[in-house]
Amino acid sequence: MTRIESDYDMSADAFRRGLGTLDMAMTGSIPLPSASESQGASLAVTAGASASLERDPGMPSTTWRMRSDAWEYLRFAVKRLVYGNDGADLLASDGEIQRSLRTLETVEMYWAGFGQRYVRAIGELLEAGDFRTALDRIGRVVNRLRGDTVPEEPRDEFIDEQERAELSTDADPRPRFEVLIVDETTPSERDATRSEGLRLRAGADAFIYEFVIVPSADDAVAAVLTNPNILACVVRPGFSERTKQRLSRDLRETIDLARAEVTPGQAPSRSSLASVQRVLGLADTLAAIRPELDLYLMAGAHIEDLAGALTRRFRRVFRREDQLELHLSLLRRVSHLYDTPFFSAIQDHARRPVGVFHALPVARGGSVVSSKWIKDLADFYGLNLLLAETSATSGGLDSLLAPVHTLKKAQELAARAYGAKHTFFVTNGTSTANKIVHQALVSPNDVVMVDRNCHKSHHHAVMLTGARPAYLEAYPLNDFAFYGAVPLNRIKQMLLEYRAAGRLDEVRMITLTNCTFDGIVYDPERVMAECLAIKPDLVFLWDEAWFAFAAFHPVTRRRTAMAAAKRLEQRFGTAAHAAAYREQRDRLVSAGGEFAPDTAWLDERLIPAPDARIRVYATQSTHKTLTALRQGSMIHVYDQDWVREAEEAFHEAYMTHTSTSPNYQILSSLDIGRRQVELEGFELVQRQLDLATSLSQAIARHPLLRRTFRVLTAHDLIPSDNREIGRPMPLRDGLSTMWKAWATDEFVVDPSRITIEISRTGVDGDTFKHEHLMDRYGIQVNKTSRNTVLFMTNIGTSRSAIAYLIEVLVKLAERFEEEQAQRDPEIPLPAEVPMPPLPDFSAFSSGYATDTVLPDGDMRAAFFRGQQRGAVEHVRHEELRERVANGTIPVSAGFVTPYPPGFPILVPGQLITAEVLDFMAVLDTREIHGYDSRRGYRILRDTGE
């Protein structure tokens, strides 16, 4: 018998177990298990790992992987039928083949190309015993899914001309996308539609598209949730509401959640247009799930009235006979998404012969290609890097400081992609982006409420602007030695305290980190709404350095700053919101203008006034989670008072911090990275979240791994008072559970980040990172704490990478168990130094505090006093501890910032307490900015404390 296991690199039994519940998960043919039964892994480990893991039926895989695995399994199983001597017996005994075929018959409705009829034909071939032909047909699908070339002339005699034409284009190198048509049609009508699409194709077209045709609104929502290749949708009013497909409970619930969130606008009153409301609801639902989708309406009667009523929802309204216009519109729209004006300009510049008579000897490779000693620079990076090196003064490439052509357009396209009103590129990281926003919006002596454990750049920015920081305390996770996020009630309480003191007018801005380094995600819509109910002109800066990817998934998008700002703007304009505001206002504020007690304001979900101003800024490290070169960042703006109050100051701040010689390679990477996320961001983020869940499942289920490591869940990272759904890892229970959690919980955990608790290994996080993961196996991680390691997936993570990480963790677990088994019990283990509680911000010293009641202080004055040599002394840790024990309260002269995670333990003017020193004494971070281990802490002399 021919060896065929190598095709998937695992045994038949392991393969079968890994895919054994595909159609159960998709079609819901078995009940979901209990919570305790849902802790299993969803990744089948490849050869080399210690055990094979089977997919947990309680965790429906994302469809991209389910579909791929089902086709791969069919190919594997049918090869056994072809090359085995007992094909008929194998077919009868292998129930997975039939289950996979049933799954694919459901799934393929939502994908173009092969379709349900193709799947049924394979089943008929298997029943007839024609295994070789079935294998050939299955192979074509697998090759397309893998991106391989398919023979242009299929050998199957019974393939009709339409299928032959579709299959023959698989070798076409042009980018391919799919178009969803929503209409209840017959098979012959569907064939006619596809044939018409093929007829309209031309060799000059830059792209190729294929149709996905579904009969109902439910199926349309299912298609855009599961098929990332869909970039446009054509709605015909003849569709039905509910699906006839056998879908899983999870997918059905997700469809219902998506449709329930959208309330369509008022439809025209004419009875002949009664179906418009239904069309509006579907259009709004699809747009909310996938904003990048291009929506078209194809109608018959009353097209003129429809065009006027539906302009906001649909790009164009067509009659059914306008197929050519629709075809051209589909291609034109995708060309707009594909457009990268600045990257194209860089390419054009690199190809153009020029004479260089300005700065930059490296430009055009001038100082490199003719050199005897540094030609390896061009060999390593490539000549294009040097040909593209230039400056704004050379012409044609636009200036970042005052863009009017290609860069301006590139930034406008980025604003469209991320849902902002304005977007600005930054070439020296989000640290600079944060300083730009602070300087643009904040003046000296303004109060800025700052998350104390936010990135150091915010603290530095507050110091530079002369604003007074009022530090907000995040809840501590003392067992793991890092902080969570700031509860909303703490933010509201501080605003109410400023109001009671008569200083609310001084509070200018709130800055929070969304999501945190460790993956704690706020609900920006709720935070901003309730804060605006107390101070309606408050400005918000959301540091989304680690959250840029979130804009491209329908669940994670809702918690981005830009999406939240848009939802608030839409909500504030409704009559229902105005009525709810008036009702609550009558309860919380008396006729004489007196406020109800603070407890009432804290206990209620506050409703802002309809005329509250939405002023929202987000900074994103695009390079951290999306495609961009290092230091490529963006600033997104959703500010209703942009022109009146912010635009000029912002441009001045941008000039202050932006280099006059920005790196054009970084800018072009931001431009082309934007193209990627608009065209395939949903697919990439969906895959990223699925693979991260696979990793957590594998660790939770593998008997050796779960003895050694523990995946931290929402139950570990979020207090119970700040979550409602109650599931430890919502995505592991299905997309609908994640949807509910992200819609209701105050905090959620970014499922793309997996934090592993490693106490049972016997080594600390820093040692585990450097000596075991990086030095031994080449696995790179960004952050550790004393007893945790953070594994971050991204849009470039592959299934092979996840499998390799699991293999490495298994080997390390075996190593740690062996070391512990061989340890001499006569030799006691070193005494573990207990981790002290994470220190809160102590206070500003009296010399820099604004008053004795509220927490803000003049950090800038303390910082510049700390630059005066005679005003500062260095004190070593033990001596400083003695001073504090004797009643002295020293004052920090500067910032002390462990990195990672990069937030200050001490800031200028802060009192140094015993709690701070205890925490610093046990820090295992190798890099601490602002602290010299030889000389000690910098403290201010003669502070009067």
TrEMBL record:
**Alphabetically ordered keywords of this record:** Aminotransferase, Transferase
Residue ranges annotated for the Orn/Lys/Arg decarboxylases family 1 pyridoxal-P attachment site domain, each copy included: 340-565, 615-799
Tell me one GO molecular function of this protein: transaminase activity
Cofactor(s) recorded for this entry are: pyridoxal 5'-phosphate
Task: Please give the name of this protein.
Answer: Arginine decarboxylase
Q: Which organism is it from?
A: Leucobacter luti
